[in-house]
């Protein structure tokens, strides 16, 4: 994503990303954000994780910018309880010093100055106190008890109930919800899997693979930048198809999540001559019928480029198998040990015989022992 796709100040792009109008309230922003992050979470899009990651980042960034703006607009100044001044009263009224020391009930029932005509009211409620303060000349608006919540403190305003604290810490207006989803736990996306194709020769002798990746990283200033990196994989001799090599945290970095792991899975390229079966190798050998019946000497290729000469005196019939020990694949868990090479013979028959040849073959084969 380009640096300018989502600016740090609110504009129409952020509202379009969340699909809300520009006059949307904070509740509308939170509701749209919740629906979209559930829809575009990368865990729900296994087929197109890159697009899901990109959409998830845009949604998160738009929510952050717009919600911060709304919270700044709706911020309410809070006055410390000790800063409230008790109105001047008659001689029968307790002094300011005594009123502050008394319990809450005495303070609520103490006479206060009526905001309208200056008369005293001996049964003022907490709502009246806040109402009179909110209409003062200082220009400071104060949340009324019904709109203030204090985490961990009862908010009951009925008779005998506790009123919320007005301390500077722990008070929030209920029009500003607190979102905890990205502030405590950073989830790790599903790992990214890629196939690493190797030839049989590479798996036979071992090799080193260098893979260039380009990933998104978050800079110290909070910008997302692309970074190139070379990953080195030392392929050990004898590794099989399906072997996994994991690079932890080498996936794209996204706000609110940990970078995913990258997993490379060994995959074998098809060989033109040999077929692998575990630690063993298989090789098909086709010989003419006459050599299969009379014996022959053949040169067998060995994986790695060498050749081995073998002589056969026995009859080679279709499906005959010859095992050459120690000429298979290396055993990765048994140093110095190798599997076997299995030679499977195919017999090439003539496609046409004359009547005389048929007669001669018949006379010869009739005298053969088939047991």
TrEMBL record:
Stored Pfam families = DnaJ (PF00226), DnaJ_C (PF01556)
Which residues belong to any copy of the J domain?
13-71
State whether keyword Chaperone applies.
yes
Please note every region of biased composition (Polar residues).
Answer: 146-158
Listed A to Z, the keywords are: Chaperone
Q: Please, one GO biological process term?
A: protein folding
Any single GO CC term annotated in Swiss-Prot or TrEMBL for this entry: cytosol
- Stored CDD domains: DnaJ, DnaJ_C
Q: Where is this region: Disordered?
A: 146-167
The answer to whether keyword Aminoacyl-tRNA synthetase applies is no
Instruction: Specify the protein name.
Output: DnaJ-like protein subfamily B member 1
